[in-house]
Each structure stands twice: as C-alpha cells, then as structure tokens.
Design a protein that fits this description.
Strand content: 25-35%
Shape: globular
Structural class: alpha+beta
Radius of gyration: 16 Å
Order of helices and strands: HEEEEHEEEEHEEEHE
Number of strands: 12
Number of helices: 4
Oligomer: single chain
Length: 227
C-alpha cells in the first residue's frame, strides 16, 4: 500500500511542473529576485485528527503552518510555511528552510526527513524566487511561536481538513490596481481560525492536485483577501 509519505517522496522525481501560468503569481520572475526557501513539513498529527473522511489521506496526516505577525512589512498576518530568504551561511535552500523553521517554530531539525525539493516559484510582490522543500516529520517535537515580532501562531492542521470541500474558497486578491484569484482554505487550530491563501494557498492547491488528493469543490464560493 502506497503511503502519503511515499507519494510525497516521489514528487521531486516525477518531472511534473507547476501550473503555468502560476496560480497566484503570474509572470516570469524578476532577474534580481532574491532566493528563498520554505519547508513543507508533513507528518502524523499528535493532536485531534480531522472529522472529514477523505478518500486520499488518513485523518491524522497534518502539515505545519504559521500565521505571520500583523506588524511585518511583507505579507502581514498571512498564513505561511516556515521559511525565508537564503543567508550567506546557508548550504542551499534545504539548509535555509530548516534553519528558518527552527528559528520560527522551535522544531528539532534532526527529526525531519528531507524528501527533496520542488521547482522554484516566483513571488513578485516581495521579489523572491522560492524553493519549496518537502519534509516528513519522522520524529515530531513541540513547536510554538519563538519570536512574537515574526509569528502570531504556529500550528499543525490536518490535511483532510484542507481537502474538505466545505473549507475551500476562491480568494479575490486586489493589488496595485490588479485583481487575482487565489485558491483558499479555511483552517482551524488551537481554537483559532485562519484563511490560507496567496502563495501558501496556491502551492497547497497545486500540490494536492499533483498528488491526486483534491476533492471537487465549489470555486464560485469567494472571499476577499484580508489585506
């Protein structure tokens, strides 16, 4: 039987590309875009599993996310994967993603199995070129907000919750006179509710499609981005 970990581990080797044009950031990356990396960390939930019965994943499969502080200059308040810009001392995007995850969530990086990297994605609004790093949490450790100036909430959400059609939305994003549509997810953890959209919503949406996990949902159900 193929497990979720097996499916995720196969992605960096399947030769599949991200959708073109990209579902959130349309257009080619700026030649001066700064390299960055995010950690897409999946594992087995140690809290309350999903109530949604997905045909694709177990109820206790989860992914690590964080809500950024509302005082930040870029993407304030948005839900994101742990990650950030590559520093001169980083040994590539994998090292950068793990370092940022430790700094932002307090996880023990020795408990993370790196499954590989996916194709770079442009984020024009912050002028970054982001490498997603896929990880499996083989030995989960406690996580939480490390720096209140950077993050407001660190949480693990069941993947089945994100796949639930009742929690899917199309998010309307208005930026600099242009209107974009972003895949969105309603997520709840630790008694708090979040809207996952933008880069994070787009990459989850595309990842679930590539894995064959997506369930049919009503794309006419819309929300405005909380800018």
């Amino acid at each position: 039987m193929t497990t979720a970990r097996d499916q995720l581990a196969a992605l960096p080797h399947d030769g599949g590309d991200w959708p073109s044009p990209w579902r959130v950031a349309v257009g080619a990356p700026d030649p001066g875009a700064r390299p960055a990396a995010v950690l897409m960390l999946f594992g087995v939930l140690d809290g309350v599993p999903s109530d949604h019965a997905s045909r694709a994943v177990a109820r206790d499969l989860d992914v690590l996310l964080l809500a950024r502080a509302t005082t930040l200059g870029h993407h304030p308040g948005q839900v994101a994967f742990p990650g950030g810009r590559l520093d001169p001392g980083d040994d590539g995007p994998v090292d950068a993603a793990l370092r940022e995850a430790v700094e932002e969530t307090g996880l023990d990086r020795s408990g993370v199995d790196v499954l590989g990297t996916l194709g770079e994605l442009p984020v024009p609004v912050s002028n970054h070129l982001v490498t997603p790093v896929l990880g499996w949490w083989s030995r989960p450790t406690p996580v939480g907000v490390v720096d209140d100036a950077e993050s407001a909430h660190v949480f693990r959400v069941p993947v089945a919750d994100l796949l639930d059609p009742d929690r899917r939305r199309t998010v309307t994003v208005r930026h600099r006179g242009r209107v974009h549509k972003s895949p969105g997810f309603l997520a709840e953890a630790d008694g708090r509710e979040h809207l996952v959209w933008g880069f994070t919503g787009g990459i989850l949406d595309a990842l679930f499609d590539r894995l064959g996990w997506t369930e049919p949902w009503d794309r006419s159900r819309t929300l405005d981005a909380p800018l």
